[in-house]
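ok, trying the design again with the full structure, not the truncated one.
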């Protein structure tokens, strides 16, 4: 297994399930000793693992008044800040790293605590769209000389799925006789998606991992960050909005700033169901949980002529979490987004046999719909890397791939996953992704509709958003 040279220090901010999962991979893949890694986190979770690996572990929550001092004490010029925390502003850390020549990566754009429930902010202002625009605006910082690479939102999703989209486009092109090389520019990727007829992209995921201990009433359980999932569920449902769509949903709104690639619904993600498809369960009802990639992929695949947008696909997350999390989400919704007092992360205690099936479902092309992605079992995840379950390993493997890319491209500045070399990322992450495969399906969201009850749907174009929207 290739080991990549890195001579700086690494600071891990946050040490929940993803932080604990990334630590053994950092030591496996980079020429770094435990003495050059520091963990700074808000509580004592994971302290035993840090001691196991001989890594410095500090409980000292990052806050608006102290984050610069804490970061500066543990990582300097040429180092790498790996942000896997919640309630710590990504934009604040990115700006600090840009000004101090520090590499940066996170898995989601986070704000300071209280952002999502601030009544002074509009629904648009507390969206993932707004968080992304804030981060991209930092590209204009008045900094002299080269800018250190900062990778935005690069876990499994967002992150890895952007590379799945590119590989899926190439696979569909090959399978439909569409002659193309590997596009070398953003515009070329967008033209390929348009010419193939891609109208809709779901980041389509199904998690079948489960705990031997059933969920209790008043308890939230999940296979990855509970705080992170609950926060996303309480944000507005968001999606990249395609040019093929005939009308906005009744409670949808456009943003009046930024790139214009996305819309939002005036309702939370935990209350927004959608029809989707993954290989194991086939058709499923999932949730539109807001995610960075829904906006970045649709933005990246936009074609414009002058000021007019002539092509863009509809893109959103369609997530069916583990069954315990489904019950937890339903209970969260019943309490209007107030998180349960008891919380249980199921990672080490997952039963054998569960999988996380994460991929991208590209629809509207000549062969109908195509899912491409990773099916990773808990059993294989445990064999591959300690302190990881199937959901977490897809994230941590993608982080390692993005860190390798950053080290090979040290002065790229602030980048989205879509702007990176998908093949390099896939090569690094692939050994940890279980079965990586693609499958075509004739499924559409209108199959079987209207047989038992009268329904309004668009039979002429099955790929209209209102056909996907669940009850």
């Amino acid at each position: 297994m290739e080991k990549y040279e890195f001579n700086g220090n690494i600071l891990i901010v946050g040490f929940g399930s993803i932080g604990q999962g990334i630590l053994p991979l950092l030591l496996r893949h980079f020429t770094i000793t435990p003495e050059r890694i520091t963990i700074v986190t808000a509580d004592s979770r994971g302290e035993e693992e840090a001691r196991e690996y001989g890594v410095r572990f500090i409980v000292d929550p990052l806050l608006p008044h102290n984050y610069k001092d804490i970061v500066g004490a543990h990582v300097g010029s040429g180092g790498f800040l790996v942000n896997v925390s919640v309630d710590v502003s990504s934009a604040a850390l990115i700006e600090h790293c840009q000004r101090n020549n520090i590499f940066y990566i996170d898995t989601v754009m986070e704000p300071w605590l209280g952002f999502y429930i601030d009544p002074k902010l509009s629904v648009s202002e507390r969206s993932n769209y707004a968080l992304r625009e804030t981060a991209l605006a930092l590209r204009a910082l008045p900094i002299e000389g080269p800018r250190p690479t900062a990778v935005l939102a690069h876990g499994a999703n967002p992150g890895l799925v952007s590379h799945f989209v590119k590989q899926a486009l190439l696979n569909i092109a090959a399978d439909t006789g569409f002659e193309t090389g590997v596009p070398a520019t953003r515009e070329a990727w967008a033209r390929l998606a348009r010419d193939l007829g891609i109208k809709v992209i779901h980041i389509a995921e199904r998690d079948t991992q489960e705990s031997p201990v059933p969920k209790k009433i008043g308890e939230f359980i999940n296979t990855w960050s509970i705080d992170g999932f609950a926060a996303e569920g309480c944000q507005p449902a968001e999606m990249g909005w395609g040019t093929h769509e005939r009308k906005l949903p009744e409670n949808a709104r456009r943003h009046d700033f930024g790139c214009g690639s996305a819309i939002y619904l005036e309702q939370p993600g935990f209350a927004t169901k959608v029809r989707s498809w993954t290989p194991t369960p086939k058709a499923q009802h999932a949730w539109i949980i807001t995610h960075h990639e829904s906006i970045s992929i649709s933005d990246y695949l936009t074609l414009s002529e002058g000021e007019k947008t002539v092509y863009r696909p509809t893109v959103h997350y369609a997530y069916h979490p583990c069954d315990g999390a489904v019950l937890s989400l339903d209970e969260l919704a019943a309490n209007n987004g107030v998180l349960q007092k008891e919380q249980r992360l199921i990672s080490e205690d997952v039963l054998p046999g569960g999988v996380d099936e994460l991929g991208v479902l590209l629809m509207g092309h000549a062969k109908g719909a195509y899912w491409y992605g990773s099916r990773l079992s808990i059993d294989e995840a445990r064999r591959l890397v300690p302190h990881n379950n199937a959901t977490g390993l897809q994230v941590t493997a993608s982080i390692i791939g993005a860190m390798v890319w950053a080290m090979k491209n040290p002065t790229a500045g602030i980048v989205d996953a879509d702007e990176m070399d998908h093949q390099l990322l896939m090569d690094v992450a692939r050994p940890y992704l279980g079965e990586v495969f693609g499958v075509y399906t004739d499924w559409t969201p209108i199959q079987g509709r209207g047989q038992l009850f009268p329904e309004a749907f668009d039979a002429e174009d099955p790929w209209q958003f209102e056909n996907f929207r669940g009850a």
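Keeping the full-length input from now on. The CA atoms of residues 216 and 342 lie 9 Å apart.
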